[in-house]
Amino acid sequence: MALLGRTAALLLFLLFSSHLLCVHCVSHQKATVSWCVISDAEEQKCTDLAGNATARNVRGNLRCVRGLDTRDCMEKIKNGSADAASMFADDIYAAGLCHGLEVSAGESLNGVDGVSYYVVALARRSSSDLSLLEMHERSSCHPGMRTTVGWTVPIGYLVNTSQIGVGEQCNFPRSVGNFFGYSCVPGVKDPQHDPRGNNPKNLCEACIGDENDRHICASNPQERHYGEAGALRCVAENLGDVAFVKHTTVFDNLDGRNQESWALDLEAEDMKLLCPDGTEAELEEYTRCHLAAVPADGVVVRVEDKCRVWKYLERLQNVFGNATEGFSLFSSAGYADSNVLFSDSAHHLLRVLGGFTSWLGHSYTSALQAFECEGFC
């Protein structure tokens, strides 16, 4: 409880202080923005962006700083050797909680808000006695171990609704295994997740492996219930009561989009959503019936640099955001990788006025908070 109290106090302080700093932005602050990159592709695109910005007379300068990994970039931003870096949602949470960092801007993929996707609970319509508030001894299908969709969000929800308790030992796999009757959680027996080989066997009982009964519960496509489509298949084949997936999963596998035999006869009317309040909904109602709205990537900065970095990004976006020729802020063409610096599917960048939890959103932040006993820092 003391940890949660300190965390809440920190979040409130950062929310308030960052709002004030963003309202009162000082225009004469240093003109150079140092961007932390962690790959050759990122470094090259950052360098190209800096050169193109100078050529187009964009006010300010961009300097590219190489980091070892995302955590190293957090440290560099905290100590001032870098000013900003693009990060995934879970890294944003760690940056805010562990280092007191903030979010200056976030991506909009749909041109409206900052949601990347919704995590939903899918079930067969014929399962008339299912409720997300009464999942004990039920069977579950997960895209993969330690994934946002397949683990963090659904297990966080079950912890937050007091259906699962992890106790002082903070052993999530054992608690999840004791809760569900059986499941398919690909990767749960991999050495990095189960170094002592103690994770419950029932977390692999709904897995089927390949056509020769090999690679059962593997964290790769050789396990046919691995990934988004695999979790849906697990439920479609009556090996699980519920699948935790992205809201797009069913639609991506309907109407001939998936030619595998298990999906050929699958129709939207065969499936339904289970809602956090215990009710159910149609597939199209995912915006109100979901476990979490997972935010898109954001730009992490020090609190005092929220406005300065945003103003520079805004100037870059005005020139390169919708470019149809030449350098494009939201294109990775020519960089031997995808989603370099920013997502290729990004529509534009949004200014983030509040604290980092305002970007992450309540449902996603709550899911992450359920895992604090494992230690983010």
Report on this structure.
This protein folds into two domains: 2-110 and 296-374, D-Maltodextrin-Binding Protein, domain 2; 115-293, D-Maltodextrin-Binding Protein, domain 2 (3-Layer(aba) Sandwich), CATH 3.40.190.10. It has helices at residues 2-23, 40-55, 70-79, 89-99, 148-160, 172-179, 227-236, 249-252, 306-320, 356-360, 362-369, and strands spanning 32-37, 61-66, 84-87, 102-108, 115-124, 139-141, 182-184, 242-246, 271-274, 280-281, 292-295, 298-301, 348-351. Strands 5, 6, 7, 8, 9, 10 and 11 form a seven-stranded mixed beta sheet that branches. Strands 3-12-4-13 form a four-stranded antiparallel beta sheet, sandwiched between helices. A two-stranded parallel sheet has the order 1-2. With 377 residues, the protein is of the alpha+beta class. 32% of the residues lie in helices and 16% in strands.
Task: List the SSEs and their pairings.
Elements: H1 2-23, E1 32-37, H2 40-55, E2 61-66, H3 70-79, E3 84-87, H4 89-99, E4 102-108, E5 115-124, E6 139-141, H5 148-160, H6 172-179, E7 182-184, H7 227-236, E8 242-246, H8 249-252, E9 271-274, E10 280-281, E11 292-295, E12 298-301, H9 306-320, E13 348-351, H10 356-360, H11 362-369
Parallel strand pairs: 1-2, 6-7, 6-8
Antiparallel strand pairs: 3-12, 4-12, 4-13, 5-8, 5-9, 5-11, 9-10
Helix pairs in contact: 5-11
Instruction: Quickly give the structural class.
Output: alpha+beta
What count of structural domains? 2
C-alpha end-to-end distance: 18 Å
Largest sheet: 7 strands, mixed
